[in-house]
Amino acid sequence: MSLFDNWKEIAFEHKTQEAEIEFWKEFCGAEKSFYEYILENYQKVTEETVKELTERLGVSNEFVMGFLDGINDSLVHRLNLEEITEDSTVRLEIDFEKLFYNMHEAKADYLYTLPQWEPILSAEKRKELEKAQKRSKIVVKEDRIGRNDPCTCGSGKKYKKCCGK
């Protein structure tokens, strides 16, 4: 069984709701420290084995895989998570604007409010990305043609007597 399969198993197959809540609480704490590490070292591309990341952060291989699963969409070159083993070297070349946007989309306020973002993205840029993410979720209602409005085909007739039949 691959590390990614192990991650999916422990992340999504819980016997009780309490166990699930406890798991996600523990994972979110580990994820926060992972992002603090990544954001503090934003100027260099992180290139380490899964084992080295596990030792550096003091978490399990599965938690590292969970982190890689979460950050994969924000990488310049995506990882094939199914093929990663403990000895695989992972290269984390991160598009930080996309990462910030994705954190907003995931509603991970404990991550996008980290103070480590300040030297990476200006306050204006973070506000702009937040607005762009919110705008992408807004449904714009199109104007509907009323029955007594002129027909859009240009015939001059009322819509109900022309194309609205």
TrEMBL record:
Pfam families assigned to the protein according to its UniProt record, in alphabetical order: SEC-C
InterPro entries given in the database record: SEC_C_motif
The organism's place on the tree of life at top rank: Bacteria
Name of the molecule in the record: Uncharacterized protein YecA (UPF0149 family)
